C-alpha cells in the first residue's frame, strides 16, 4: 500500500475562517492517524484576487492551529506549463475549442434562451455555455486569434463524455443528499466548461486534477460544496490518463443564517478569533472536532 497523501488547497484570496480550519484539521488529522503525508497547495491562479499577504496569513494561521505540512507548498501560479501541457493533450484528442463571447454576451444569450423556457444550469447554479462555437464541428472550429482578442478554451463535453464512457468515483464521505459509496459521475451537468482563458491559462477544475496527480494525492478531503465538481475531475482524470484518488466530502461550516461561510468575519475569521484570545483547542471545539 502506498503511503496515503492528503492535501489542503486554499485560494489566497482572503483570510482563513472556521470552514477552512475544519477542512485543514480533518486532512491533517487523517494524515497523521494513518502515517500519511499532509501537503499544502496554494491555488493562486486568479491573479486578480490572490495576494501574497493572504498566502502569508494562511501559513501563519495554519501553523498557529498546530498544522505542519511537507515543504515546500505547491503554488499553482508557478506551474502554468503543466496545465498548458494538459490542454494540449486534450486538444490533440479534438476535445477543446475556443469561444469568444464576453461574459456580458453570454448573459445576453442566456436571457434570450430563457425567454423560450428554462435554460439549464450547472450544479453551482450558473447557466451552461449557450454560445455559437459549441455548434461547430471539430473541423469547422477557428484557431486561436492572432489579434490578441480575449478567448476561453472550452471542453467539448459531449465528445469528452463519449470518449470517456461511464465514470464513477469512490465517495467515503457523503454528498449534499447523502450520496456515498460508488457515485456515478455526471460531468455533462456542467456543460462545456472553461479549461483556460487567454489571461489565465488554466482553470480550477484542470489545475486541481493535474496537481492532485503530480503531487501523488491519494485522498481528497474537501467541503461538500465541491461534491459535484468531482464529476468533472473524474472526466479529466480519465481523458488525461491520471490516477483517481478516493474522495471524502465533509460537512460545511455555516453562519447563523445557515449559509456556507464564504468570507472571514469577526465571528468566523481565524485571525479575529485569535486576537480575541481564542485558543487552537477552542477552534477545534468550535468546528466540532474533539
Ligand atoms: N481551492 C479550492 C477552494 O479553496 C479547493 C480545491 C479542492 O479542495 O479541490 O475552495
Describe the secondary-structure layout.
Elements: E1 5-8, H1 18-33, E2 37-42, H2 52-65, E3 74-75, H3 80-91, E4 96-99, H4 103-115, E5 152-155, H5 157-164, E6 168-171, E7 181-184, E8 194-197, H6 204-214, E9 219-223, H7 229-239, E10 246-250, H8 270-275, H9 280-286
Parallel strand pairs: 1-2, 2-3, 9-10
Antiparallel strand pairs: 4-5, 5-8, 6-7
Helix pairs in contact: 6-7
The chain binds glutamic acid.
Low-confidence stretches: none
Named once each, the bound ligands are: glutamic acid
Radius of gyration: 20 Å
The overall average pLDDT, rounded, is 95
In what range is the share of β-strand residues?
A: 5-15%
Concise summary:
With 290 residues, the protein is α/β, with parallel strands linked by helices. It has helices at 18-33, 52-65, 80-91, 103-115, 157-164, 204-214, 229-239, 270-275, 280-286, and strands at 5-8, 37-42, 74-75, 96-99, 152-155, 168-171, 181-184, 194-197, 219-223, 246-250.
Fold and architecture overview:
The structure is a single chain. By secondary structure, the protein is of the alpha/beta class. It is 34% helix and 14% strand. Strand 9, helix 7 and strand 10 (246-250) form a beta-alpha-beta unit. The longest helix is centred in the first third of the chain and has 16 residues, at 18-33. It is globular, with a radius of gyration of 20 Å. The two termini are 29 Å apart. The mean pLDDT is 95. Bound molecules: glutamic acid. The site of glutamic acid (GLU) has 7 residues, from loops.
Keywords:
290 residues, three-stranded parallel beta sheet, 9 helices, 14% strand, globular, binds glutamic acid
Amino acid at each position: 500500500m502506498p503511503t496515503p497523501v492528503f492535501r489542503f488547497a486554499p485560494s489566497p484570496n482572503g483570510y482563513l475562517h472556521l470552514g477552512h480550519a475544519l477542512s485543514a484539521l480533518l486532512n491533517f488529522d487523517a494524515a497523521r492517524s494513518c502515517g500519511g503525508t499532509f501537503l499544502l497547495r496554494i491555488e493562486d491562479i486568479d491573479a486578480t484576487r490572490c495576494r501574497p499577504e493572504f498566502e502569508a496569513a494562511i501559513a501563519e494561521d495554519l501553523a498557529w492551529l498546530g498544522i505542519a505540512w511537507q515543504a515546500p507548498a505547491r503554488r499553482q501560479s508557478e506551474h502554468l506549463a503543466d496545465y498548458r501541457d494538459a490542454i494540449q493533450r486534450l486538444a490533440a484528442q479534438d476535445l477543446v475549442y475556443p469561444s469568444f463571447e464576453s461574459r456580458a454576451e453570454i448573459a445576453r444569450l442566456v436571457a434570450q434562451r430563457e425567454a423560450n423556457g428554462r435554460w439549464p444550469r450547472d450544479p453551482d447554479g450558473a447557466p451552461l455555455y449557450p454560445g455559437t462555437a459549441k455548434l461547430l464541428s471539430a473541423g469547422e472550429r477557428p484557431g486561436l486569434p492572432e489579434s490578441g482578442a480575449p478567448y476561453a478554451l472550452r471542453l467539448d463535453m459531449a465528445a469528452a463524455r463519449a470518449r470517456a464512457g461511464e465514470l464513477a468515483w469512490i465517495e467515503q464521505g457523503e454528498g449534499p443528499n447523502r450520496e456515498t459509496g460508488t457515485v456515478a459521475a455526471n460531468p455533462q451537468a456542467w456543460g462545456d466548461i472553461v479549461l483556460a482563458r487567454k489571461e489565465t491559462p488554466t482553470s480550477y477544475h484542470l489545475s486541481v486534477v493535474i496537481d492532485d496527480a503530480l503531487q501523488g494525492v491519494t485522498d481528497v478531503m474537501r467541503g461538500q460544496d465541491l461534491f459535484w465538481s468531482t464529476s468533472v475531475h473524474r472526466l479529466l482524470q480519465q481523458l488525461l490518463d491520471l490516477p483517481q484518488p478516493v474522495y471524502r466530502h465533509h460537512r460545511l461550516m455555516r453562519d447563523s443564517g445557515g449559509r456556507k461561510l464564504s468570507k472571514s468575519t469577526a465571528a468566523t475569521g481565524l485571525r479575529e478569533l485569535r486576537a480575541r484570545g481564542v485558543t487552537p483547542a477552542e477552534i477545534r471545539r468550535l468546528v466540532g472536532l474533539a
